[in-house]
């Protein structure tokens, strides 16, 4: 097989892996009659042997199914990629093989072409698609002798029974066709083609049409229009008009017709990957690539482990050597690095330098490629981009992002001078950091998420440990405030390990990272993960010389807040007291950290039912925050929301409502409408409306709050359980017990899973679920739930706590109702 100089990863590199694919084709033949539309799609990376597979499938039809007709078109030919020339080419192939006539299609296409090119004579040299035929000759005569295309349509209508039948079948008014623009006439061509096709072959004949190189439809058009517009004419026009015809299509990427285009394709589209590479197929592949020496083949196969990229890398090496000398076994594959080393030996210096620079980013597009080439000037021309991406070790995705095969990339990085490598990472760190500077936390996009991820990667490669910690805490703050906790948590986890390794387990930066990571776990409801991190951070902070250091106070406050959320109020109280004392002592009574402690302390007292202690703390915290931060800060909104909750619990609904509304307005303005803090206030406001009987106002707020927290925090977060519990209570109040029951059950499951089974919130949901069963008259289900709720609440809260009183009263009321029922019986 001849090896051309630029065939790095093309069809010439064929390997065969088709047993499963062929079996799928045979089954498709057997089942084709039961489908109105039948599309069999094979996908796989370039050069994997899809074209060869089509040849094998066509051979099967020839030898085993001679009664099945077929034709094939390869979209690698650029002119075949629009509907008109595609159909002309398909017509020619079918006429050549099966002597079919397409009189109607020929005539309509001629009229279409003339309307598209009115100034050009309809002659053989201008319109090479002309074919002899009575109707077509007359149509061409009219088109050439009259400027009125309407006469051609009238002639076609009077002379062709097929055309009249087609128009009638499709409810088309011939008089209106003449006014159609060329693009609209073009849309009619598949239907016209189908009319001629079925007139020749009949409605019940089996016919397969093969289309290869399907990805070529996007060639040069990926950044223009929507993705699915490129093949719409095949998907929505051509195939639907060819009822009963089967299609075998090959392309690089799996089709997304279902579910992105039309759910019906789930019934008609069958897809198979072409990817397995057993040793026998590797051998065949290498033989087809011209490697005849068995020793070389065996070395390559062993080193490649059957991975296509490894095979292609080896063939690249073989081809480079073969241009200069006879390849021998010693140049190939004892280990994978040896394959790389012998490969780069025959690349020119500028190619190697360019690839070294490009090995730094995880991926790159053309713009970044040009930026890097201009910045580091490896001597590789930016205009040679298209040549570079033809190498088989360059991978591309559907968004035209390119990357180097990981084996090659790692070897390039090791080969590159360490100073140059660090310089490249530093440049890319600045490049991606610029994209996330001064972020509006309400407008963070997936591009910003990618930029942070990439910046973090390059920061790890270019910054010392302490600088890495300082940089990441700063740059991730916007994402933290925007509740992108799931995004930044893995980065914090990785940074923690780096800091421990580089700085030691007792370093203050390790404590800071432990504290911040614990805060992320806390926000995500992973309290069991947060607790040991907060405890370890506090241990490290206690080692500082000053016992009343702000970091110690922060750590105490955070640990106390976690204990409060876990329902361990007795553990939280002394920690809050100590944190507040330190902060007031060293920062002064009007400091924001003092306000933070006051707010959290008030929440604890509220949770404990000591509302008279909570109220002045909230009011003092609000005063400090408004004075220091202004009236539109999220921290102000937090205290407003908390104070409103307190008034709600105290029954002062008229005081709670305006505070909720003001908090919600601030949150939506500053944080955006989909932030978890917005959901918290929506839930609280909905609960207020619920208890004031405004059910129609309450329901949409609960629903919106639930949607936000499930989206941002996940379905098993404690905040999700809270909203589910409250929404269930609303449905219960509305008498919709069938809607309330599954919500209570889901809330209970979530709280028992993510909180301590003895948590007061678990008792609350148990009590509510028991109340629902009581309302439904199912006392035998209600009683054990109510008993368990009472056991938990008496263990966790004081006897005078409102929740304790409520649950105990409900339990006694249930017993009373059950006793009365027994007496009646």
Automatic annotation (TrEMBL):
The keyword Disulfide bond does not apply. Its main location: cytoplasm. GO terms for cellular component: cytoplasm; kinesin complex; microtubule. It comes from the Archaea. Keywords: Coiled coil, Cytoplasm, Cytoskeleton, Microtubule, Motor protein, Repeat, TPR repeat. TPR repeats lie at residues 511-544, 553-586, 595-628, 637-670, 679-712, 721-754, 763-796. GO terms for biological process: microtubule-based movement. GO terms for molecular function: kinesin binding. The keyword Repeat applies. Coiled coil: none annotated. It is found in: Cytoplasm, Cytoskeleton. Belongs to the kinesin light chain family. This is Uncharacterized protein.
């Amino acid at each position: 097989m001849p090896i051309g100089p630029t065939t790095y990863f093309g069809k010439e590199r064929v390997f065969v892996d088709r047993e499963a694919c062929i079996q799928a084709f045979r089954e498709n033949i057997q089942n084709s009659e039961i489908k109105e539309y039948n599309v069999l799609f094979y996908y796989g990376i370039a050069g994997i042997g899809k074209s060869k597979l089509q040849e094998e499938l066509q051979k099967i039809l020839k030898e085993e199914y001679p009664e099945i007709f077929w034709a094939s078109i390869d979209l690698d030919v650029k002119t075949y990629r629009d509907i008109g020339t595609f159909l002309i080419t398909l017509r020619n192939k079918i006429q050549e093989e099966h002597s079919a006539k397409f009189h109607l299609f020929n005539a309509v296409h001629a009229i279409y072409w003339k309307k598209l090119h009115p100034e050009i004579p309809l002659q053989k040299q201008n319109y090479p698609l002309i074919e002899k035929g009575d109707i077509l000759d007359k149509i061409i005569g009219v088109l050439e002798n009259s400027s009125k295309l309407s006469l051609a349509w009238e002639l076609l209508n009077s002379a062709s029974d097929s055309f009249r039948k087609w128009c009638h079948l499709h409810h088309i008014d011939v008089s209106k066709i003449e006014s159609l623009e060329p693009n609209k006439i073009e849309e009619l061509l598949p239907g016209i083609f189908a009319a001629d096709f079925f007139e020749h072959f009949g409605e019940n004949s089996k016919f397969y049409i093969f289309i290869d190189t399907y990805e070529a439809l996007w060639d040069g058009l990926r950044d223009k229009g929507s993705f699915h517009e490129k093949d719409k004419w095949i998907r929505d026009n051509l195939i639907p008009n060819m009822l009963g015809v089967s299609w075998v299509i090959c392309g690089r990427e799996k089709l997304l017709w279902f579910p992105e285009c039309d759910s019906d394709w789930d019934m008609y589209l069958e897809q198979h990957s072409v990817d397995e590479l057993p040793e026998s197929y590797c051998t065949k592949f290498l033989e087809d690539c011209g490697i005849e020496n068995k020793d070389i083949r065996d070395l390559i196969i062993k080193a490649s482990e059957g991975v296509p990229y490894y095979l292609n890398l080896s063939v690249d090496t073989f081809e480079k050597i073969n241009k200069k000398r006879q390849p021998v076994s010693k140049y190939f594959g004892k280990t994978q690095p040896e394959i790389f080393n012998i490969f780069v030996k025959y690349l020119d210096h500028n190619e190697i330098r360019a690839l070294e620079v490009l090995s730094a980013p995880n991926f790159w597009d053309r713009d970044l490629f040009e930026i890097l080439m201009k910045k580091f000037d490896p001597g590789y021309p930016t205009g040679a981009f298209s040549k570079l991406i033809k190498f088989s070790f360059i991978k591309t995705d559907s968004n035209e992002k390119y990357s180097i095969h990981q084996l090659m990339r790692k070897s390039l990085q090791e080969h590159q001078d360490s100073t140059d490598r660090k310089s490249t990472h530093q440049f890319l760190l600045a490049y991606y950091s610029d994209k996330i500077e001064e972020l509006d936390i309400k407008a963070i996009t997936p591009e910003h998420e990618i930029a942070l991820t990439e910046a973090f990667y390059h920061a790890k490669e270019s910054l010392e440990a302490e600088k890495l910690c300082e940089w990441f805490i700063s740059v991730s703050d916007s994402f933290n405030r925007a509740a992108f906790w799931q995004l930044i948590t893995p980065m914090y986890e990785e940074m923690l390990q780096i800091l421990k390794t580089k700085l030691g387990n007792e370093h203050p930066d390790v404590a800071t990272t432990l504290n911040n990571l614990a805060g992320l776990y806390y926000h995500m409801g992973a309290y069991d993960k947060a607790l040991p991190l907060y405890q370890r951070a506090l241990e490290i902070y206690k080692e500082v010389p000053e016992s009343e250091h702000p970091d110690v106070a922060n750590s105490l406050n955070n640990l106390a807040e976690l204990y409060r959320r876990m329902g361990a109020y007795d553990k939280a109280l002394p920690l809050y007291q100590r944190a507040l004392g330190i902060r007031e002592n060293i920062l002064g009574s009007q400091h924001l950290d003092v306000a933070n402690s006051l707010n959290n302390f008030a929440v604890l007292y509220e949770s404990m039912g000591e509302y008279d202690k909570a109220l002045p703390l909230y009011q003092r915290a609000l005063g400090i925050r408004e004075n220091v931060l202004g009236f539109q800060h999220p921290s102000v909104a937090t205290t407003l929301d908390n104070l409103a909750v307190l008034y709600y619990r105290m029954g002062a609904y008229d005081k709670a409502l305006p505070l909720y509304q003001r908090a919600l307005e601030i949150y939506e303005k500053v944080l955006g409408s989909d932030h978890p803090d917005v959901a918290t206030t929506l839930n609280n406001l909905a609960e207020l409306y619920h208890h004031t009987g405004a059910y129609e106002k309450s329901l949409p707020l609960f629903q919106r709050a639930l949607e936000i927290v499930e989206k941002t925090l996940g379905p098993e977060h404690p905040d999700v359980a809270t909203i589910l519990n409250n929404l269930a209570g609303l449905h219960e109040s509305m008498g919709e017990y069938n809607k309330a029951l599954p919500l209570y059950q889901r809330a209970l499951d979530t709280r028992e899973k993510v909180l301590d089974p003895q948590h007061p919130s678990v008792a609350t949901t148990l009590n509510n679920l028991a109340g629902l069963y009581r309302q439904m008259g199912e006392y035998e289900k209600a009683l054990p739930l109510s008993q368990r709720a009472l056991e938990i609440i008496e263990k966790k809260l004081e006897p005078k706590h409102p929740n304790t009183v409520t649950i105990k009263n409900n339990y006694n009321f249930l017993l009373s109702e059950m006793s009365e029922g027994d007496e009646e019986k």
